[in-house]
Inverse folding.
């Protein structure tokens, strides 16, 4: 799922949310460790992955992190 958010000042970000499954917890943990190094995503125990990126203006890191934290709670389509 790809979402775009913005404010009236022209600041905008994109949020990518994916639902991933693994054969076992070891594989999920290994993936989570890799993901933690590469980006600002948030992985729940059910392997819902949300990544955020600024696409216009300025969106600070705290806001990007908050967007990812909320996005992992979106229902699977």
């Amino acid at each position: 799922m790809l979402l775009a958010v913005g404010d009236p000042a022209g600041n905008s970000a994109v949020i990518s949310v994916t639902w991933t499954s693994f054969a076992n917890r070891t594989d999920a943990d290994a993936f989570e460790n890799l993901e933690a190094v590469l980006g600002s995503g948030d992985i729940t125990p059910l392997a819902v992955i949300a990544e955020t990126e600024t696409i216009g203006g300025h969106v600070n890191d705290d806001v990007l992190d908050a967007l990812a934290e909320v996005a992992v709670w979106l229902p699977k389509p």
